[in-house]
Amino acid sequence: MQKPEIVITDNGFAIVTAKSADAVSLDEVRAIVAYKLDELTTDLVCCDIVTSAADGEQIRTIHEELLGFDAAMKAFEALTGFDRQWRDAVVLPPFAMNRTVIYDRAACA
Asked: Is there a cis peptide before residue 93, judged by omega within 30 degrees of 0?
Protein backbone atom coordinates (compact mmCIF):
# COMPACT_ATOMS: atom_id res chain seq x y z
CA MET A 1 0.00 0.00 0.00
CA GLN A 2 1.31 3.43 -0.97
CA LYS A 3 1.79 5.88 1.89
CA PRO A 4 0.27 9.35 1.43
CA GLU A 5 2.68 11.98 0.15
CA ILE A 6 2.73 15.65 -0.73
CA VAL A 7 3.62 16.49 -4.32
CA ILE A 8 4.49 20.03 -5.36
CA THR A 9 2.65 21.24 -8.47
CA ASP A 10 3.15 24.29 -10.70
CA ASN A 11 0.78 26.40 -8.63
CA GLY A 12 0.51 24.59 -5.29
CA PHE A 13 0.56 21.06 -3.99
CA ALA A 14 -1.36 17.79 -3.98
CA ILE A 15 -1.88 15.27 -1.23
CA VAL A 16 -1.62 11.95 -3.00
CA THR A 17 -2.89 8.63 -1.61
CA ALA A 18 -3.31 5.24 -3.25
CA LYS A 19 -6.95 6.14 -4.02
CA SER A 20 -6.87 9.83 -4.89
CA ALA A 21 -5.02 13.09 -5.33
CA ASP A 22 -6.29 16.26 -3.65
CA ALA A 23 -4.77 19.24 -5.49
CA VAL A 24 -4.68 22.69 -3.90
CA SER A 25 -3.60 25.95 -5.52
CA LEU A 26 -1.65 28.40 -3.38
CA ASP A 27 -4.30 30.95 -4.41
CA GLU A 28 -6.88 28.91 -2.45
CA VAL A 29 -4.90 28.92 0.81
CA ARG A 30 -6.47 31.28 3.35
CA ALA A 31 -4.47 30.31 6.45
CA ILE A 32 -1.87 27.87 7.73
CA VAL A 33 -1.68 26.90 11.39
CA ALA A 34 1.33 24.94 12.65
CA TYR A 35 1.44 22.97 15.90
CA LYS A 36 2.87 19.87 17.52
CA LEU A 37 1.21 16.70 18.72
CA ASP A 38 2.75 14.97 21.72
CA GLU A 39 3.40 11.36 20.76
CA LEU A 40 4.69 10.34 24.21
CA THR A 41 8.43 10.25 23.44
CA THR A 42 8.51 12.59 20.44
CA ASP A 43 6.55 15.47 18.97
CA LEU A 44 4.95 15.44 15.51
CA VAL A 45 4.94 18.81 13.71
CA CYS A 46 1.65 19.32 11.86
CA CYS A 47 0.08 22.04 9.73
CA ASP A 48 -3.59 22.68 9.10
CA ILE A 49 -4.05 24.30 5.69
CA VAL A 50 -7.30 26.23 5.50
CA THR A 51 -8.85 26.80 2.07
CA SER A 52 -12.12 28.28 0.88
CA ALA A 53 -14.87 25.90 -0.19
CA ALA A 54 -18.37 26.40 -1.57
CA ASP A 55 -19.88 25.46 1.81
CA GLY A 56 -17.42 27.34 4.02
CA GLU A 57 -13.84 26.30 4.54
CA GLN A 58 -11.91 23.08 4.20
CA ILE A 59 -8.96 22.04 6.34
CA ARG A 60 -6.24 19.70 5.13
CA THR A 61 -3.74 18.46 7.69
CA ILE A 62 -0.19 17.56 6.76
CA HIS A 63 2.67 16.50 9.03
CA GLU A 64 6.44 16.18 8.98
CA GLU A 65 6.43 12.40 8.47
CA LEU A 66 4.73 12.73 5.08
CA LEU A 67 7.08 12.55 2.13
CA GLY A 68 7.18 16.05 0.62
CA PHE A 69 6.42 17.97 3.84
CA ASP A 70 9.62 20.04 3.69
CA ALA A 71 9.06 20.83 0.01
CA ALA A 72 5.50 21.96 0.80
CA MET A 73 6.72 24.24 3.57
CA LYS A 74 9.28 25.70 1.15
CA ALA A 75 6.50 26.26 -1.43
CA PHE A 76 4.41 28.11 1.18
CA GLU A 77 7.22 30.66 1.48
CA ALA A 78 5.90 32.12 -1.81
CA LEU A 79 2.80 33.30 0.09
CA THR A 80 3.09 36.98 1.02
CA GLY A 81 3.22 37.24 4.80
CA PHE A 82 4.20 33.62 5.42
CA ASP A 83 6.24 33.39 8.65
CA ARG A 84 9.57 31.87 7.57
CA GLN A 85 10.64 31.60 11.23
CA TRP A 86 7.63 29.41 12.06
CA ARG A 87 9.72 26.45 13.17
CA ASP A 88 11.24 28.43 16.08
CA ALA A 89 7.77 29.27 17.42
CA VAL A 90 6.40 25.74 17.05
CA VAL A 91 9.26 23.41 18.00
CA LEU A 92 10.25 24.87 21.39
CA PRO A 93 9.47 24.10 24.12
CA PRO A 94 9.12 20.38 23.55
CA PHE A 95 5.86 18.55 24.25
CA ALA A 96 3.80 21.75 24.16
CA MET A 97 1.30 22.15 21.32
CA ASN A 98 2.56 25.68 20.45
CA ARG A 99 -0.32 26.32 18.03
CA THR A 100 0.87 29.19 15.79
CA VAL A 101 -0.74 30.93 12.80
CA ILE A 102 2.09 31.02 10.27
CA TYR A 103 0.05 32.44 7.40
CA ASP A 104 -3.20 34.44 7.32
CA ARG A 105 -4.26 35.88 3.97
CA ALA A 106 -6.73 38.27 5.61
CA ALA A 107 -3.97 39.79 7.76
CA CYS A 108 -1.93 40.49 4.62
CA ALA A 109 -4.74 42.28 2.77
From this structure: yes
